[in-house]
Amino acid sequence: MDIPIVNQNINQEITIYPNEKTANTSSKDRIKLIDNLVDTAINTTIDHAIKVLNEILMLDKKAIESLISNRVECNEALADHPTVQVGAIMNKTSSCGKSEYMGSEITGYNVGLLGIINGLFGVDENKCGYIAARYNDDGNLICFERFKVGEKP
User: Which of 92, 91, 90, 87 lies closest to 74, judged by CA?
Assistant: First the structure.
């Protein structure tokens, strides 16, 4: 199947112009084609966001590291958003001299800038955001990258 002419503007809007070879394509094939084009546009946008995040990290590491590491309390309505990545605050109980999460009682929620940014791009099949912040062993932010399934961000 020939691919129709696609115009993708700076705002990531996609316009599909059928050509003479795709005008007679079945509706099912057109839907598959459109789904593939949308997936391509979304992936391009994620890659662009990662590129920009890494560029601004190099320009002002201290500011970006501070913004990304900062979390603010948020309400349950935001925590229930289907794509924004929000952390749960759990009760901590001291056990054997160290603090551990005991049980699953959630006492609040928090959100950071990366959770909001990830919310713009949706989630994968595991409900994880696509953009991860990578830290070194000393806890310093070193780069942004695509989240890899099976790895902790």
Answer: 87
Final residue before a domain boundary, out of 59, 80, 108: 59
Alpha helices in the chain (DSSP H): 27-59, 61-69, 76-79, 113-121
Strands 71-74 and 14-17: unpaired
- The C-alpha atoms of residue 60 and residue 42 are separated, in whole angstroms, by 27
Could you read off the pLDDT of 52-85 as tens digits, one per residue? Answer: 999 999 999 999 999 999 999 999 999 999 999 9
- The pTM score is 0.64
Would residue 65 count as lying in a domain? no
CA pair distance 92, 98, nearest whole angstrom:
10
Tally the domains of the chain.
2
